[in-house]
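Comment thread on ticket #2218

A.B. wrote:
> Attaching the input chain for the structure job we discussed in standup.
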Amino acid sequence: MSTLHETSPVHFSDPLEAETDVVVIGGGIIGVCSAYYLACLGQRVMLCEKGVIAGEQSSRNWGWVRQHGRDEAELPIMMESIRLWQGMAEEIGEDVGFRQNGVLYLASTKEKLDRREAWIELAKQYQLHSKLLNASEVASVTGTPEGQWCGGVQTDSDGRAEPWIAVPAIARAATRLGVKIKEHCAVRNIEVTNNSVSGVITEHGTVKCSRLVLAGGAWSSLFAGNMGVYLPQLCVRSTVVKTTQTKNFYSGNAADENFAFRRREDNSYSLALTDRIEHLIGPNTFKFFKPFMPAMKMDWNQYRIAPAMPTGFPDAWQTKRQWASDAVSPFEKMRVLNPAPNVKSATRVMKFAQQRLPGLKDSSVAQSWAGMIDSMPDIVPVIDSIDSADETGLAGLTIATGFSGHGFGIGPAAGKIVADLVYGRSVPYDLDRFRLSRFTDNSPIKLGPVF
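C.D. wrote:
> Ran it. Output below, let me know if you need it in another format.
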């Protein structure tokens, strides 16, 4: 992987449409998949990306495509996403690196193993096969000495894909269906007529539309706030390490209480910490403190409060919260959110890997990078279509954001849901868990699972 940044070349430069059916804001996995499936329904779609396609978290994530450990409301959606990933390469005519080598959640203690095992009962309710492995089986599967872990739970139908390959490939497929994609095209504001979306104002001009999809990842709360929409979202930084190339000792994805690892197509491994949640302080830290308190209390020891967000970041102290349609927006000032990796985290995760995985004993850090994860107070996303002006005063707005670090795997099915919502088709899932109003209607915060 070569991390994308401000000067990365533009690959999608369609002319700005004067009028279209739907405008999608954001060129990550959710926005791209939403655009793709909207085109499959015959909709005219314009996707505007302030930077480059998959420039931020959608190319920086772990690449996991997992059902295991999902919130119960997400699980049937994720099972559909697995099906979509299985057929993705054939459907779009490009390999996206999807491989079903399984996901294994490891446990170092009996107490942790019992918690892992509880997942199996939920999986059974959805006819998903997850199995308990003992210490000997774990050692055999991972190529490690027996005793490293006391057991684990494995879901064989889970897998991985290569994010920096998959998202641009789906975007190219979307353009072949007629989607217009314009990179380096920030949406500054929206036009509203009779309390309904009637267009968007970009840095290059206005596009008339009646429906708008906000899939801006870490920037969504900032954009929503300028529209007067309350969206309690915070960003956390995740550092990922790519090792030097090595022999294949384990082909799947695995994680324990400290770190995660998975095989890559280039014969290296990706590593990341699982016991650190790194939050950079900004105004929203205090604005959204109350809704995030339950999550912080549950895993307080995992939180690491980092210095203030750097200038230009979505929640930096200097970032404007309101701007006019004819003024340069924060999205133009930072095309690609490219946080520096945490050097200590990179060193720490490499040390864990070398201690516990004999296959990586002689490996080293080949590359490290970081991404900003768009997190919600309950660790599940917002997927909601506003079909009346009652809630936000913005009928025609659909929001799909806050996937809290697990949006890549669920991206295809989430995009398909967004397309159905925008088109007005019925959705075969209960989306009540993902409604925007759960943060304003006095509903208690119900935390999703943290594996």
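A.B. wrote:
> Thanks. Noting for the ticket: The chain has one domain: 22-102+157-439.
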